[in-house]
Amino acid sequence: MTKVFQLMQEGDFEQVVYNYDEESGLKAIICIHDTTLGPALGGTRMWNYDNEEEALKDVLRLARGMTYKASAAGLNLGGGKAVIIGDAEKDKSEALWRAFGRFVQSLNGRYITAEDVNTEVEDMDFVAEETDHVTGLPGTSGDPSPVTAMGVWKAMKASAEEVYGSKDLAGKTVAIQGVGSVGYYLAKHIAEEGGKLIVTDIKEEKIKRVEREFGAEYVEPDEIYGVDCDIFAPTALGAVINDDTIPQLKCDIVCGGANNVLAEDRHGDILHEKDILYAPDYVANAGGLMNVYDEMEPGGYKKDRALKRTDKIYGNTKTIFAISKRDNIPTYKAADILAEERIAKMRKVRSNFIIK
């Protein structure tokens, strides 16, 4: 049996909430990792998990990743995430989303939700019927995918400059694993810059689209790891850099839009030893979070301001590489240091007593 409190203690989590609604069939887990910097913001993922333990493991690692993402991005947000157990093609309903919205509301602002894997802006509309603690709605920041992709593109250019001495991606071959929302827009940026695309996805219509619009070359999902390329861009689910895939890699750079790309920290060590530059995922894909964060700024969402903030991902990525070289440590450790130092400083600042 999963020992939830033990897992929370090991990862320094603040709160894990199980939510069930019989009428709609909702089975959801909301996890709040850390609220030192501000309320925990993170999307809601819907996935047909094999079991509850798998769902718990996923939401824990995703919530922790959001804490580090927000901190490294310089945002006044904590880290949280939600997962709903179910088939997104069959189980979505107004009742399910409104039940979920009521559970979000019960947390009184400690957790703010948004769309994520297999959830959409329209789903968040139903959630918003029950709570104000939701972002990424129509008429505000909307779908974060284009801005997430822009941030990954900026990180990719910073990585190229680090390895090749130029941030220009023209003539470079980029292998993109997953060409859904983020992957599609990332492919668009690369194609417009003159890069060559090798892509894979499990959905044929997505492949056809990037083949038609960008002249991308398709390979089977299992083949994407071993293609000859300059940059490998994992932009689907996480844990794809692992013991099985690393020996197949024929790239200089790993930089993509997926969360939790490293199956284990030691895989980041292996990339470092193999001289493959890794742009830490939560630094590279922070654009979507920056986009929805802008909704909380004075005056509400302003697209130009959100895009300007996303430009900072280029510099943030370069800072990570500088720390890595300075301390001779893998880039994932350098990113963690940057994020943890900011949280530690703010924890001390906020220890001072004030009356609100």
Summarize the structure.
The protein is an alpha/beta fold.
SSE inventory with pairings:
Blueprint: H1 4-11, E1 15-21, E2 26-34, E3 40-41, E4 44-47, H2 52-72, E5 78-85, H3 94-106, E6 111-112, H4 121-127, H5 145-164, E7 173-177, H6 181-193, E8 196-200, H7 204-214, E9 217-218, E10 231-234, E11 253-254, H8 265-273, E12 277-278, H9 281-284, H10 287-293, H11 303-310, H12 312-327, H13 331-349
Parallel strand pairs: 3-5, 3-6, 4-5, 7-8, 7-10, 8-9, 10-11, 11-12
Antiparallel strand pairs: 1-2, 2-5
Helix pairs in contact: 2-13, 3-4, 5-6, 5-10, 5-12, 6-7, 10-11, 12-13
Give the count of structural domains. 2
Average of the residue pLDDT scores? 94
Under CATH, the topology of the largest domain is which? Rossmann fold
Output the helix-strand order.
Answer: HEEEEHEHEHHEHEHEEEHEHHHHH
Low-confidence runs of at least 5 consecutive residues: none
How far apart, in Å, are the first and last alpha carbons?
A: 43 Å
Which percent band covers the strand fraction? Answer: 5-15%
Computed structural class: alpha/beta
Helix content: 40-55%
Biggest sheet layout = 6 strands, mixed
Radius of gyration: 20 Å
- Give a count of the beta strands, DSSP E runs of length 2 or more: 12
Write the CATH architecture name of the largest domain.
3-Layer(aba) Sandwich
